[in-house]
Predict the 3D structure of the following.
Amino acid sequence: MKKVQTGQVIEFYSNSCLVKTKSGKLNCLAIKNIVVGDYVEVEIIQDSKKHLGNIIKINNRSSVLSKKNGNKDKLFAANITHVGILVTPEPKTSSEFIDKWILKSIFSGIEPFIINNKIDINSDDEYMNKLSVYRDIDMKVINCSAKFEDNLEELQKFLENKCVLFVGNSGAGKSTLSSKIIGQKLKTNELSNNQGVHTTSVSSLYELPNNIKIIDSPGMRDIELIEYSKDELISGFVEIHESSKRCKYNDCNHINNDGCNVIKDVINGVISKSRYNNFIKFRDN
């Protein structure tokens, strides 16, 4: 009878992965739809000189991050508890990027929070007001400077007992922040071709003290929300959803219908204009 153990995928390549079990790390062939973070059942290959295994089952996931690739869902990572959205004054992070990731996280069963990175850079009132919008809807916001390692202790404390994926625009400092928290450079593969050496990223899960897990999964920067219905989208804007319950008509379009409570709350400053505009844009596009 072959020996079977439960493990977690801690590195994922195009056709293979590394699984950590209680008896060590096993190189395994990847099976369909497996991603970094997955808990799996592994059949250990006994007669091998190397640490090899066959994945025979993917266990139930608490969450999964994916994005549409044509008509199919491309999976990126599983069993994430939190998504840290990096927001920076330079380059400026748009409210659209923030709201997209808030919705994507909520719909994926993951809790979003905001990392206000680059606090070493002077921020204007517009930027500070942008952050206030998310504090006002009870979104956790942590201030830090990854480059200068300022206030990383607060972030690390928050990360305890969590499995986190960081997301951010190019230049937001995601790789710098991840490397500082992890204590090492992110893992990559170097591929050579006739035009020189190119680097391709590896999806990895890093385990740290205090039960902190950081997942680095390339390709999750640009996302769309086309797979979600209009009813789903409004539910992701919690304050707008609550306000809509007090509209005069159940089928209110929240643009120009009579008795719209959402428009009333926008005019009165109860709902932020940027959140409202993003809601309409996501819903109607």
